[in-house]
Amino acid sequence: MLTHLDENDRPKMVDVSDKNITQRVATASGIISMSEEAFKHIKDGTAKKGPVIQTAVVAAIMGAKKTSELIPMCHPLNILGVNCDIAELKNAIKLTVSVKIDGKTGVEMEALTGVSVGLLTIYDMIKAVDKTMVISNIMLESKSGGKSGEYMRSK
C-alpha cells in the first residue's frame, strides 16, 4: 500500500505521530547552464535585476521554508538551518542546499525545493540576456536520520 493513499485509495497525509524525533539532514544540488554572456553578467555583478547569486541563495532558503505550502503531502517542519553553496562551472552555476531539522520526518523535499527555487530565481534574473538557459541535474546528494538511515549518492 502506498503511504499517501488510504484504504479507499484516497489521498492522505502520512501520520508521523508515532515516529521518533531524530536529527535529520538532507543535501540536494542542481545546475543551471547558460551562455557565456549571461554567466559573465552574473559573475561580474552587472545583471540589471541586481545581485543574482545573493538573491538566489535567499530564494533557496525561502523555498526550503515554504515546501509544505507547495508540495501537497509534505509536513510543515521546524527548520533549524539551511546552508547554500554556489560553485561556478564553465558557463554554469551549481547550487547545493542542505537543510537540517530535529523532527519526525525527512527534509529531502525541502532541500530539493530549495535548489529548484534558487535555480529558477537565477533564470528569472538573467532571462533578459539568455532565454536558452537549462536547469538540470536536480538531485538528492545525501540524507541522514530517521528510520531509513543514511543515504549517499555514489559519485
Automatic annotation (TrEMBL):
Q: Which UniProt keywords apply?
A: Lyase, Molybdenum cofactor biosynthesis
EC no.?
4.6.1.17
Q: Write down a Pfam family by its short name.
A: MoaC
Query: Coiled-coil segments, which residues?
Result: none
- Pathway note: Cofactor biosynthesis; molybdopterin biosynthesis
Report the leader peptide range: none
- Which reaction(s) are listed as its catalytic activity? (8S)-3',8-cyclo-7,8-dihydroguanosine 5'-triphosphate = cyclic pyranopterin phosphate + diphosphate
State how it assembles.
Homohexamer; trimer of dimers.
Instruction: State what this protein does.
Output: Catalyzes the conversion of (8S)-3',8-cyclo-7,8-dihydroguanosine 5'-triphosphate to cyclic pyranopterin monophosphate (cPMP).
How is this protein named in the record? Cyclic pyranopterin monophosphate synthase
